[in-house]
Request: fold
Amino acid sequence: MTILQICVLFVAAILGGTLNSVAGGGSFITFPVLLFTGVPPINANATSTVALWPGSVASTGAYREELAKQERTRLLVLGGTSLVGGVLGALLLLRTSQTTFVRLVPYLLLMATLLFAFSGPITNRLRRRNVETKKERFSWSGLVGIALLQLVIAIYGGYFGGGIGILMLATLGLMGMENIHEMNALKTLLTSFINGVAVITFIIAGAVVWLQAILMVAGAIIGGYGGAYFARQIDPRLVRGFVILVGITMTIYFFLRG
Reply:
């Protein structure tokens, strides 16, 4: 790596970590930058996942109280489904050729960008349904259905992952959950599971470019804990708008490049 590439990767990781802690969408920054610096597509995706995962785990700690209120059966079923799906998605990525993945990149970015763009209205609608005094009814049939949906989301998450947060919020809403804070807590935990097993799979397969990964982990941690303070001083709508703009720009670029 050149000094310029080191600086670009480090700054991208700081920005990605910051965005993930404030609005999400950090992979819109880290994944393309890894590609631009010469990392092969599949390795870039694996390395980006490794770089941003510690921040996701750290975010889970902030939801300790909300997670303590979750039904144990729900946690076990959805957690187990997420682990299985995350591994399957990661293995599917590793079995995809670099050429095929390059062709899929613009479509994956487009889907992730659309999911992120519409996450605000969906989350606001779920928040309006928030009736904390209403007890959620436990339904085995409903849980099985959501577990199957979660398996699909987890496979996508292990494969690429952009936008899985809003997909999970939507499915948890279908399940009957109404407290947006508890939903966010469960979503964050399940995301950590999906990315965690994907990270392990990528490491075992030797798909991670370690010099870039270590550099970006350091940057993402700085961004997640330090940069987020400054980002919170900015109107959240501007932060979201920036992420969407980056997503659209990267999508157009990779469509034209292909």
Q: What stands out?
A: Confidence is low (pLDDT under 50) at residues 131-135. Residues 180-205 form the longest helix (26 residues). The CA atoms of residues 73 and 133 lie 21 Å apart. The chain has twelve helices and no strands.
